[in-house]
Design a protein that fits this description.
Elements lengths: L1 H5 L6 E5 H22 L4 E5 L1 H5 L3 H8 L5 E4 L2 H13 L6 E4 L5 H9 L3 E4 L3 H11 L6 E6 L11 H7 L10 E7 L12 H21 L5 E5 L1 H6 L7 E4 L10 H11 L9 E6 L2 E5 L4 E2 L5 E2 L4 E6 L16 E4 L2 E6 L7 E4 L12 E8 L2 E3 L1 H7 L4 H6 L6 E5 L2
Parallel strand pairs: 1-20, 2-3, 2-9, 3-4, 4-5, 5-6, 6-7, 7-8, 8-9
Antiparallel strand pairs: 1-10, 10-18, 11-14, 12-13, 14-17, 15-16, 15-18, 16-17, 18-19
Helix pairs in contact: 8-9
The protein binds pyridoxal-5'-phosphate.
Length: 403
């Protein structure tokens, strides 16, 4: 565990396994190639880096996988600009970036100047066109049209595109329509994909409207996130938008089951993240001592505890109170009492010999032969693994390792 001693932090930190990240990209590269061998068209592999790359660290993840991916998808303009600045600082060739979130006019302009593609999914664009024309950008703004197919979030229903998108016809001097896309509502929640198939039919309808009424053909089409990329071959189209699976997580148990059936064998997704923390204090409490706010835990016998400087501020959910374990020297140790804003207290009686030495806790990830997954934490905290990782504090130090 050399990496621990090399760290200059007294707080908790995240290890990002670059090799496993690239392995997971490789799973989708292979899936895309296989799809191409059968259908004649190999989809591009796009990765979703929103929410600070699902809490793993935007630039750490981008840096580790950029050479192996075709497109990066983000929600915020600021994330796209962070990637462009990172490329400039490090003398790297720019990769394709598509912003899938809503934007202000100024953001659209800035992104276009930095060669970032954007999405058109609501009526605010109607008012942008005239100003964009006046600002005379060096090239057209490259947009992907968001087709609403049943998530009821962004985009235009095929039936309303003819009227609500009519402004587009007079805007092609400033906009270049590069693609069209949509997003599934429940591919990961089911093993029967009836609703997804209904969404696919609407997507086709939307594409047909763009072709027939707007003469927009040859668009780059994309709708598949992780789950659909894996289990709905008919949804792969021209680009995959892989989020959660890039980080080594199955979207759900249902997706895993379906993948086994659809693909014949399960691709191996490897976890990328470990969350560790060095203890601040190790000490022995007398029988009957209370631990933490609310005095919710009382030691039934003499108990050696370790105090760790990590809490719900860092993303260790308060809902984990009195439920979770951490790993110390490969041994499961209970978190005692409530999770505090910046601290947890752990029973280390069985994992240590005396009070003399500080210990490293693994809050998430592997230690010895034991591991605690984001899914396990999510179960304890009554949420989903997506939320567990997305809420990891942006302030936490992220250390990229090669396993
Ligand atoms: C988050 C998101 C994805 C990725 O979803 P995963 O289930 O994490 O793979 C893809 N497309 C859009 C539009 C998204 O918002």
């Amino acid at each position: 565990m050399d990496v621990h001693s090399a760290l200059k932090t007294s707080a908790s930190y995240l290890e990002i396994d670059a090799a496993n990240l690239r392995h997971n990209v490789g799973v989708f590269k292979e899936l895309a190639l296989e799809h191409g061998r059968r259908s004649g068209k190999t989809p591009l592999v796009g990765v979703v880096l929103k929410a600070n790359a699902y809490g793993h660290g935007l630039l750490e993840v981008y840096g580790a996988c950029r050479a192996h991916v075709d497109i990066c998808f983000v929600i915020l303009a600021s994330d796209a600009l962070k990637i462009r600045d990172f490329e400039t600082r490090n003398g790297l060739a720019p990769r394709r970036i598509v912003v899938i979130g809503a934007l202000t006019l100024d953001e659209v302009e800035e992104l276009a100047r930095r060669d970032v593609e954007v999405t058109l999914g609501d009526d605010s664009w109607k008012d942008f066109i005239e100003t964009l024309r006046k600002r005379s950008l060096p090239s057209k703004v490259q947009v992907h049209i968001h087709i609403e197919t049943g998530l009821s979030r962004e985009g235009y229903l095929p039936t309303e595109m003819g009227s609500r998108l009519s402004f587009l016809k007079g805007a092609l001097d400033v906009l270049e329509v590069k693609g069209a896309f949509s997003h599934f509502a429940n591919t990961e929640d089911v093993t029967e994909q009836d609703y997804a198939n209904h969404q696919l039919a609407l997507f086709d309808e939307g594409l047909k409207v763009l072709q027939d009424e707007f003469q927009l053909s040859g668009l780059e089409r994309h709708i598949a996130a992780s789950a659909a990329s894996l289990v709905l071959p008919g949804a792969r189209f021209d680009v995959l938008r892989v989020g959660i699976a890039l980080y080594g997580f199955w979207p759900s148990v249902e997706t895993r089951l379906s993948a086994k059936i659809v693909l014949g064998k399960l691709p191996s997704l490897k976890p990328v993240l470990a969350w560790r923390c060095q203890s601040q204090i190790v000490k022995t409490l007398a029988t009957g001592s209370y631990v933490g706010y609310g005095c919710t835990y009382r030691c039934p016998s003499e108990t050696r505890i370790a105090v760790f400087p990590v809490g719900y501020f860092d993303g260790y959910a308060r809902m984990l109170s009195s439920k979770s374990h951490v790993l110390i020297n490969g041994i499961r140790c209970a978190v005692l009492g409530r999770v505090m804003m910046n601290h947890i207290v752990v029973d280390v009686t069985k994992a240590t010999k005396d009070d003399s030495e500080n210990v490293v806790a693994t809050l998430l990830g592997q230690s010895g032969h034991e591991s605690i997954s984001a899914e396990t934490l999510a179960g304890w905290a009554q949420t989903i693994h997506y939320e567990i990782v997305a809420r990891l504090g942006a302030h936490l130090q992220r250390v990229v390792i090669e396993s």
